[in-house]
Amino acid sequence: MADAIDSGSIDGNVVWVQVPSLAPIKNDRGFKTSFLLATTCCVTLHDYKCIMMLEVKKMETKDVLYELRTKNGLTQDELAEKVFVTRQAVSRWENGDTIPNTETLKLLSDIFNVSINTLLGSPRELICQCCGMPLADELIGHNSDGTLNEDYCKWCYADGTYTYNDMDSLISVCIPHMVKAGFEENQARKYMKQMLPNLKYWKNHDYLSDGGKFEAFKKELIKEINDLNIKGMPKVESLSALVGSYVNLAYPLPSGIKAQFLNDQTTYLGTQLESDKFCFGVVANVDFILICTYEEEGNNPNLLLFKKR
Known about the structure:
The chain is an alpha+beta fold and about 300 residues long.
């Protein structure tokens, strides 16, 4: 591997991303992989997991549409009805004679919950224009109307809201996780400071920013959480975006059943606070505050509080 961090390159079916001091490894499908570039830490930042680059499978639009339709158990007639075209039109798409128009691509994107880029066979590499993370469909953020926004990841853009108003805040949250992944702190910080200003969100920050309203909401939420005075829980200093699927623990209830309280597809605000025996987890949004404890890797979760706001 090279000593310098590279933006990534495609070699056959594998996306190679160069990271200092980290050797390539094989995933469970036998493909060589390497850790994502520095922006991987934007994932580990929120999910407390290491994410590895997966195989990139290039497909034509006709094959993508056939695979999505059959995977979802739809006939050509049923798909045609959903997007207001004839069965013959769907057949022509799948034969490669034509491709859907722009408005139909938007409908197909919504139906199958994949990006238009994926529907077109992934002709371009999607990069989060806030943190720089390479985007797979399951990582793409949503607009307020539920449609996918192919410019941003779930952690930086949730339901039409940008979750980072300050570049230094994003960098400071990323750095500890980048260090754990093998980066030198100074090198990681230098890279982030060079890379982020080139992204769309930060280039147009004055226009895209909400003027600090979201940051004000986070401060209000932090005060509300700390005022609960949960015994033994360290003071909450900051909240970051958390995707539900990574923090949706199943808590045992007095009745003996286990219950989950989060939506896997929703982005929340939260944090992890460490104590001597276990970790405190905090997840919140405009509607509720959830506080729990758990051991390493989320084992033995215990729900302490679920409070509607």
